[in-house]
Automatic annotation (TrEMBL):
One of its GO terms (molecular function) is ATP binding. This is Uncharacterized protein. It comes from Persicobacter diffluens. Keywords: ATP-binding, Nucleotide-binding. InterPro entries: Val-tRNA_synth_C_sf (IPR037118). The lineage of its organism: Bacteria, Pseudomonadati, Bacteroidota, Cytophagia, Cytophagales.
Length: 40
């Protein structure tokens, strides 16, 4: 990305993918916290 070889469309696509991955991570973290309550 820092090399400047991607187009604006590429950057928008990558930004959306990063956002989606962050959302998935948040969901999985919440699920992990829910499940960890059963282990106590």
């Amino acid at each position: 990305m820092n090399a400047g070889t991607g187009s604006h469309e590429d950057l928008a696509t990558w930004a959306k993918e990063i956002e989606d991955i962050g959302d998935q991570l948040d969901e999985k973290e919440l699920r992990w916290l829910e499940l960890s309550e059963f282990a106590e």
